[in-house]
């Protein structure tokens, strides 16, 4: 068994987590995920100022505090904190180890940075121009080679988040490149661990069942970090250190599995993992067993994260109080737009947030907010020229005029777009502690997605093939065939029980036939949980039912069409829906809702983190039989 922990889910996560995880219990490997699309942009801008920068400096400070403890405990550290400069970070770590008097073998993985090759690879001609950063999502085998060569610390640039777990598992158990099911199982464990505390109750829809939010002190509300106990067949148990905060349950794991995914075929550089084959089961207190995961060859192309400098942005927020909120909002909007004259920012977006209560007992209850966000290539146009124009309305605006902040300069923003290149053009290299360079060849076997035949059969009571559908803006829902089926011809792959894949062809009215009793109008969140997030400019909202009966109601009820009714802001966007019966879940992908990615989005929830909670708050008619 291999015990792998996580101490970071993003650049800026809890600084003390590395020490907490090393002191909290035995670990073979401690991982840290520091990179996201936005992080690569931030690191890229930093490297423009200082070519020797480009890595997560927080990681270096954490290691300075904890490296001796990791050596004492025999715990290897694997992190993607190298960002745009893994070699530079490895050098700084060697200097640190020497200063601390520690004999530590430090290796790194490189080859993901393609920015100097964008023209050669056809990545430089997008509508955004030449990218600031261009990084391929490498797989796990470079990490595995470093560990096999005896590394105590491995730092990487852009690898897939799950690779931080798959690499150590492949090194420990000696997996071959085509051990698809084992690799897929470890990928699932890695996906659960990659966002740290989210797997143990962080951001959990039913958080009040875990935390005593009314208790004094912090002991009852401080969430721990996850641990995966991985076995040689790729199966695992998700748990946490004894005494750490939060909880590990089937639902906390389900929530994380649904986070920032698309369809059930989860393609990576080493394996395509079938999320519709995952089997979860309680394995004791704060222990959830993951098994049954099937995998197949990866696709023949590698995804590339492209970040471009987009321009500058700024925002001002008006405080609206008391009567006539909508009229006050319209007045402020017209006054500021008049101040722009004939030269407004390239993009102006207004958002009215909240509403005043009737007969408010506090000023807060009487208040709503009006947010104006602006973007433009010209820093001056969205700097003091914009924010100063808002302030100048202070004595000439609506009654009760006030703002939430003083005038200020704008800030630069970036634009994210994905790219794809053939696997063989990516020069993935493991650089061992001894300085030996080991080229990592691409997967020998790859497979394009292919559609399985549409079967108009009733679905099985449990398990089953993913049920995708797509509804494009301005169109009614259309059936969409299942995604990739990676089994060889004649060997079913989409179903854990080996039976042929099936598609749920039930019509929406079937929900009325199955649950024809009394209903109550309640928030959808009374019976379902949700977790949402961003995939570049797209948003994903995963929704799961808590019981079998609730799933039988939810699956035919929450169609793409009904989803768009409940979240009207998605109506102008293409919505893709995927059902995962094995998780009692449906996942929705809303294309373009977050515009050009988190840095450029003018939405006040630019990463879509709260969309799931918005959906859960909507009132629907729920059969009493499932309450």
TrEMBL record:
InterPro entries: AtuA-like_ferredoxin_dom, AtuA_N. This is Acyclic terpene utilization AtuA family protein. Residues 2-430 form the Acyclic terpene utilisation N-terminal domain. Residues 481-504 are annotated as: Disordered. Residues 523-617 form the AtuA-like ferredoxin-fold domain. It comes from the Bacteria.
């Amino acid at each position: 068994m291999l015990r792998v922990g996580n101490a970071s889910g993003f650049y800026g996560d809890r600084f003390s987590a590395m020490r907490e995880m090393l002191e909290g219990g035995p670990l073979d490997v401690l991982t840290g995920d520091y990179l996201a699309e936005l992080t690569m942009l931030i690191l890229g801008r930093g490297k423009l100022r200082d070519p020797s920068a480009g890595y997560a400096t927080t990681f270096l400070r954490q290691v300075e505090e904890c490296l001796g403890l990791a050596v004492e405990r025999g715990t290897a550290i694997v992190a993607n904190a190298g960002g745009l400069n893994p070699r530079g970070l490895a050098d700084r770590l060697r200097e640190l180890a020497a200063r601390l008097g520690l004999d530590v073998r430090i290796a790194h993985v490189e080859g993901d940075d393609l920015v100097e090759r964008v023209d050669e690879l056809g990545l430089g001609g997008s509508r955004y121009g030449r990218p600031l950063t261009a990084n391929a999502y490498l797989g796990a085998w470079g990490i595995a080679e470093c560990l096999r060569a005896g590394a105590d610390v491995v730092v990487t640039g852009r690898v897939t988040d799950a690779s931080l777990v798959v690499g150590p598992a492949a090194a420990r158990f000696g997996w071959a490149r085509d051990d698809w099911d084992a690799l897929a199982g470890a990928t699932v464990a890695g996906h659960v661990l990659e966002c740290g505390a989210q797997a143990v109750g962080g951001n959990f829809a039913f958080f009040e069942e875990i935390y005593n939010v009314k208790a004094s002190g912090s002991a009852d509300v401080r969430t721990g970090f996850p641990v995966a106990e991985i076995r040689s067949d790729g199966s695992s148990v998700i748990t946490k250190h004894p005494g750490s905060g939060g909880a590990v349950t089937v639902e906390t794991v389900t929530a994380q599995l649904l986070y920032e995914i698309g369809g059930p075929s989860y393609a990576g550089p080493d394996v395509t993992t079938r999320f519709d084959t995952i089997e979860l089961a309680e394995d004791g207190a704060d222990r959830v067993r993951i098994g049954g995961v099937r995998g197949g060859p990866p696709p023949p192309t590698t995804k590339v994260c492209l970040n471009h400098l987009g321009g500058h942005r700024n925002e001002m927020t008006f405080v609206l109080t008391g009567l006539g909120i909508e009229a006050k909002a319209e007045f402020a909007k017209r006054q500021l737009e008049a101040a722009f004259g004939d030269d407004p920012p390239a993009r102006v977006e207004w958002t009215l947030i909240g509403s005043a209560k009737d007969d408010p007992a506090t000023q807060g209850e009487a208040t709503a907010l009006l947010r104006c966000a602006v973007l433009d290539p010209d820093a001056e146009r969205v700097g003091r020229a914009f924010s100063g124009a808002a302030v100048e309305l202070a004595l000439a605006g609506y009654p009760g005029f006030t703002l939430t902040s003083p005038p200020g300069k704008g800030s630069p923003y970036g634009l994210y777009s994905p790219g794809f290149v053939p696997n063989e053009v990516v020069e993935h290299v493991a650089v061992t502690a001894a300085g030996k360079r080991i080229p990592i060849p691409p997967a020998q076997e790859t497979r394009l997605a292919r559609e399985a035949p549409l079967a108009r059969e009733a679905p099985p009571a449990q398990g089953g093939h993913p049920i995708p559908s797509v509804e494009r803006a301005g169109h009614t829902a259309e059936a969409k065939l299942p995604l990739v089926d990676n089994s060889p011809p004649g060997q079913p792959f989409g179903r854990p029980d080996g039976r042929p894949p099936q598609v749920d062809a039930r019509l929406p009215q079937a929900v009325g036939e199955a649950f024809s009793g009394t209903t109550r109008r309640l928030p959808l969140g009374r019976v379902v949980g949700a977790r949402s997030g961003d995939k570049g400019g797209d948003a994903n909202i995963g929704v799961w039912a808590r019981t079998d009966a609730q799933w039988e109601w939810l699956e035919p009820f929450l169609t793409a069409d009904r989803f768009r009714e409940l979240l009207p802001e998605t109506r102008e966007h293409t919505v893709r829906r995927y059902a995962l019966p094995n998780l009692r879940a449906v996942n929705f992908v809303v294309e373009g809702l977050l515009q050009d990615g988190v840095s450029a989005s003018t939405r006040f929830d630019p990463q879509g983190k709260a969309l799931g909670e918005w959906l859960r708050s909507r009132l629907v008619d729920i059969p009493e039989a499932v309450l």
